[in-house]
């Protein structure tokens, strides 16, 4: 018994210091939590206004208020970061894989778009795949349209690994298939939406194009009849010398600098090309498209020069609303696109065609920090910065939050 009592006293002697040590450590941890800096306040080093220091609360359910304007708001800190990484998504092209090419800062991932009067639901890949089950969705446009598709592909890959179903010889038209949901995702490449060809002078490409505004480009229209959802975007190819043809006659130009030809500017040429594309969809009797969306102009952010004169985009945080220009060329093109969609919407009502807007222009004017810049690894264009496309992951992922909300809102209006 004495031995047992001795062991008991020994054990109690060991427990008491342990217990006191635990209390002491708990007290120290409490002080650390109480007086450690707020992670949001730490972000104030980026000169954020205090009114912006709010975390986004997810809305109740996955619906967005019907009367909410999703596209007017601001970027707010969101420590949740991206829903995927450049390691978890295997379909990111090298030119958009900014971390692989040496980008070190990651703060550009920790922001979320907050509409002024509501909340934007975060993209839910499971819900989206159920929504598009048995359907086909096509992005129609240039490499920025493809950039959007690549973002959506990464988000959906969190739920199901897609099958790479088709790639043309130029790797421009791509088709991906999600067999578990019988869902097809594709990019239909087109430079101008309408028919266009580059002039060849003495056997050399001239960089001058002829556009036929009364003829849509068959590279995308031949696939459209079987598509349920269409997302059209275009613009960046219009910033070059172009001659505009209608009915076989030259009706104007862009950057042509000829005394007998009127230079109407980029927005005018883009308007007529977009109008032709929307008119084609509205008149297409074989098309089964349920909803057609126009993604508005996505601005480039070259500073200290143009793309070929040393222009760069090396910012690491977003602009505030007071720092962007809503009266420039970018906003002019965005407003024109909205006007053309409204005309198409009115024209399509009798036919049951639905048209809507993915108005990304204001949000992306603030995100000069989201481009690949020098971190795109293009061996053919060393020394040039990419300030047109967007890193993956990156701020372009918010386009799919918009896409899901707008698609569901427009689809709800389709007569049954």
Automatic annotation (TrEMBL):
Membrane spanning stretches: 12-35
Domain Trichome birefringence-like C-terminal: 120-405
Major location (coarse): membrane
Subcellular location: Membrane
Regions annotated as coiled coil: none
Taxonomic placement: Eukaryota, Viridiplantae, Streptophyta, Embryophyta, Tracheophyta
Membrane topology: Single-pass membrane protein
Protein's organism: Rubroshorea leprosula
Name the record gives this protein: Trichome birefringence-like N-terminal domain-containing protein
């Amino acid at each position: 018994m004495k031995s047992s009592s001795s062991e008991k006293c020994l054990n109690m002697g060991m427990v008491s210091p342990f217990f006191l040590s635990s209390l002491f450590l708990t007290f120290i941890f409490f002080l650390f939590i109480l007086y450690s800096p707020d992670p949001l306040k730490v972000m104030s080093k980026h000169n954020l206004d205090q009114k912006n220091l709010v975390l986004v609360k997810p809305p109740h359910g996955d619906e967005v208020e019907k009367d909410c304007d999703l596209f007017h708001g601001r970027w707010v800190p969101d420590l949740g970061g991206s829903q995927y990484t450049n390691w978890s998504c295997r379909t990111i092209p090298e030119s958009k894989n900014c971390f692989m090419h040496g980008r070190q800062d990651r703060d550009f991932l920790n922001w979320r778009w907050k509409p002024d009067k509501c909340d934007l639901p975060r993209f839910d890949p499971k819900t989206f795949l159920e929504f598009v089950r048995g359907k086909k969705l096509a992005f129609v446009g240039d490499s920025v349209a493809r950039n959007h598709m690549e973002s959506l592909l990464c988000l959906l890959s969190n739920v199901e690994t897609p099958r790479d179903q088709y790639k043309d010889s130029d790797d421009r038209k791509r088709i991906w298939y999600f067999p578990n949901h019988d869902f097809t995702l594709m990019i239909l490449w087109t430079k101008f939406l309408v028919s266009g060809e580059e002039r060849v002078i003495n056997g050399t490409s001239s960089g001058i194009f002829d556009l036929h505004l009364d003829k849509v480009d068959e590279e995308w229209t031949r696939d459209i009849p079987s598509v349920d959802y269409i997302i059209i975007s275009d613009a960046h190819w219009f910033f070059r010398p172009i001659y505009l043809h209608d009915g076989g006659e030259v009706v104007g130009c862009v950057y042509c600098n000829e005394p007998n030809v009127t230079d109407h500017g980029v927005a005018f040429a883009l308007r007529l090309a977009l109008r032709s594309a929307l008119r084609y969809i509205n008149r297409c009797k074989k098309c089964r498209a349920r909803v057609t969306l126009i993604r508005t102009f996505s601005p480039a952010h070259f500073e200290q020069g143009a793309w070929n004169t040393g222009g760069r985009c090396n910012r690491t945080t977003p602009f505030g609303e007071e720092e962007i220009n809503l009266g420039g060329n970018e906003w002019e093109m965005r407003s024109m696109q909205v006007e053309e969609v409204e005309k198409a919407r009115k024209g399509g009502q009798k036919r049951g065609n639905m048209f809507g807007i993915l108005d990304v222009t204001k949000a992306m004017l603030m995100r000069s920090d989201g481009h690949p810049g020098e971190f795109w690894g293009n061996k053919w264009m060393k020394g040039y910065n990419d300030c047109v496309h967007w890193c993956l992951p990156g701020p372009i992922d918010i386009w799919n939050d918009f896409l899901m909300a707008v698609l569901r809102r427009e689809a709800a209006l389709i007569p049954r």
